[in-house]
Amino acid sequence: MTEQTAMTSAEATATRHLIGLTFEQVGDALDINPRSVRRWESGSSLPGAGAAGALRALRAEHDKDTKRLCAKAAKASPLLIPTGEGDTRPAGWWKAVAARVLDRSPGTVIEWH
Questions:
Q1: What's the chain's average pLDDT?
Q2: 47-99: per-residue pLDDT in tens?
């Protein structure tokens, strides 16, 4: 499938897990019913092109946060990762970012901030 088309059930599932969000959090972020996200992942329906694009945009935001913190990891130790408290993103988002930073930069020391 091209980037302008719908995504598969597996792609929707993998994306949600990669960015560390629950069904409800993805639903809130995309302004859709969380049951729609569950249906995508079960394969009973698929996200349309608009929803798939919005989910890809959310992934792109996650990529930006990951890249930004990877750059900080090269300059600071320990790397302070937000906890999600008082933040616009929930804790699961930041935990997933931390995992991606550790994957890209082995040996990075992280702490929750």
A1: 93
A2: 999 999 999 999 999 999 999 999 999 898 899 999 888 778 999 999 999 99
Rounded CA gap, 36 and 24, in Å? 10
pTM of the model: 0.91
Task: Tabulate helix, strand, coil % of the chain (nearest 5).
Answer: 60, 5, 35
Cβ atoms of 3 and 56 closer than 8 Å? yes
